[in-house]
């Protein structure tokens, strides 16, 4: 795979110097973008993320230091080199203390500038991956043109260089496992296993055995030794999805494993050393869970060494057309359909939707449209029908409970022919409580009485 050239944004209100710098850096093998003031630079950064910014200090409007301060506040991993015609040693020291990567006085030596650029780019995670995986490959499954997502991926690649535990926050369907896998692929453990487990999907009594393994005879049905996921992920990464749903008793045992770096299979008296990197994820607010006693504070700090948050799809709508067309291409091939894209009206509906189910919901919508489409363009009618059906399926927990309660009450009243006393007894509720339920759902028991 051919790697793209490192991208450098140059900011200077001197058009001649701007052109000269662009020519020199392009000749040195860099891709350059040039703008003439700080405001234009910020607009550019909203659209695209370079790996380095080189800016003049003295400019009309926003000066170079103000531009740096904005970049450092919003994208602290993006290195900035400042060029100035009035630089002094104290100025350079002060700039370095504030986080400026390089500070060069004009006229500067080209070799010195190129050396600083090379050094900055070596430290920029958007250029030099910390593994043998090609730059684009480690994040190939994450489709985005969002500046916020690019910032997140920059942080993810920095994190990938070490073994620090990572806690990924994000709503369901945002792609937390994809990000965890990308971190694994960008790191030094990329050639070792990536093992994922959903802590909410495995019954409490089985989760300990799944994580730590068990020995033959440890419990009824344990007919042979079983290797746990910690051992399966040996040398690699263990991804603990929905860690906020892990039972408290198991949280204690997980904490001990993280502290001692060894596990004890269920039913065994022997411990086994383990070498894994832990990445966990949750859609819950674990700080609140810690406050209410639902999650151990000591485990929270063990897991939350580095925190990353994936934005909901509704917060990065610029990604919706990109993702929709990406899914369309994949699914059209899967179902052998000759579909070229979405009509403008259909795409407008997708972009303006609320997306409570995030990227996963978008993929489901596109799949329904592809399956039912008989034309080369996805129509707004198909999108509307698919989204309407999806909305019926993806209701909130409270709405689902209300629907269940009402359906249940109707069935019980039908069975008892509207006899509230019998209905309350059948549903194991006292009569007063049952009446309150009927009032909540505006049900009239007399309407169910036999004629």
From TrEMBL:
BP-aspect Gene Ontology terms: phosphorelay signal transduction system; regulation of DNA-templated transcription
CDD domains: AAA
Keywords: ATP-binding, Nucleotide-binding, Phosphoprotein, Transcription, Transcription regulation, Two-component regulatory system
Sigma-54 factor interaction domain residues: 142-371
Keyword Glycoprotein: no
Occurrences of domain Response regulatory (ranges): 7-121
4-aspartylphosphate PTM sites in chain numbering: 56
Gene3D superfamilies: 1.10.8.60, 3.40.50.2300, Homeodomain-like, P-loop containing nucleotide triphosphate hydrolases
GO MF terms held by the record: ATP binding
Protein name: Two-component system response regulator GlrR
Organism in which the protein naturally occurs: Sulfuriferula plumbiphila
Gene that encodes the chain: yfhA
């Amino acid at each position: 795979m051919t790697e793209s050239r490192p991208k450098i944004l140059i900011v200077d209100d001197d058009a001649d110097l701007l052109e000269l710098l662009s020519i020199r850096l392009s000749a040195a093998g860099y891709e350059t973008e040039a703008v003439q003031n700080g405001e234009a630079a910020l607009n550019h950064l909203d659209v695209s993320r370079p790996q380095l910014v080189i800016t003049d200090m003295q400019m009309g409007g926003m000066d170079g230091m103000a531009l740096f301060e904005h970049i450092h506040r919003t994208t602290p991993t993006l290195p900035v080199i400042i060029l100035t015609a009035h630089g002094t040693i104290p100025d350079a020291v002060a700039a370095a203390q504030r986080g400026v990567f390089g500070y060069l006085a004009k006229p500067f030596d080209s070799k010195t500038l190129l050396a600083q650029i090379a050094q900055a780019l070596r430290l920029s995670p958007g250029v030099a991956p910390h593994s043998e995986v090609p730059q684009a490959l480690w994040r190939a499954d994450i489709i985005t043109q969002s500046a916020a997502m690019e910032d997140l991926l920059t942080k993810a690649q920095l994190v990938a260089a070490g073994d620090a535990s990572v806690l990924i926050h994000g709503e369901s369907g945002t792609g937390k496992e994809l990000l965890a896998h990308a971190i694994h692929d960008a790191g030094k453990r990329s050639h070792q296993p990536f093992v994922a487990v959903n802590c909410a999907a495995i019954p409490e009594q089985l989760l300990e055995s799944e994580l730590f393994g068990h020995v033959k005879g440890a419990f009824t049905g344990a007919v042979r030794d079983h290797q746990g996921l910690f051992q399966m992920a040996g040398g690699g990464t263990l991804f603990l999805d929905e860690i906020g749903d892990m039972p408290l008793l198991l949280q204690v045992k997980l904490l001990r494993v993280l502290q001692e770096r060894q596990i004890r299979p269920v039913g065994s008296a022997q411990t086994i050393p383990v070498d894994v990197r832990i990445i966990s994820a949750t859609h819950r607010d674990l700080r609140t869970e810690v406050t209410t006693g639902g999650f151990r504070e000591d485990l929270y700090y063990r897991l939350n060494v580095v925190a990353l948050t994936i934005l909901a799809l509704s917060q990065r709508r610029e990604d919706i057309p990109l993702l929709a067309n990406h899914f369309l291409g994949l699914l059209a091939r899967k179902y052998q359909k000759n579909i070229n894209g979405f009509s403008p009206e259909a795409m407008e509906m997708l972009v303006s939707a609320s997306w409570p189910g995030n990227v996963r919901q978008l993929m489901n919508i596109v799949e329904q449209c592809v399956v039912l489409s008989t034309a080369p363009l996805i129509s707004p009618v198909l999108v509307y029908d698919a989204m309407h059906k999806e909305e019926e399926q993806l209701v909130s927990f409270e709405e689902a409970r209300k629907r269940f309660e009402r359906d249940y009450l109707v069935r019980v009243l039908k069975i008892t022919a509207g006899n509230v006393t019998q209905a309350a007894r059948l549903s194991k509720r006292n009569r007063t409580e049952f009446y309150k339920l009927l009032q909540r759902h505006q049900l009239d028991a007399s309407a169910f009485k036999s004629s």
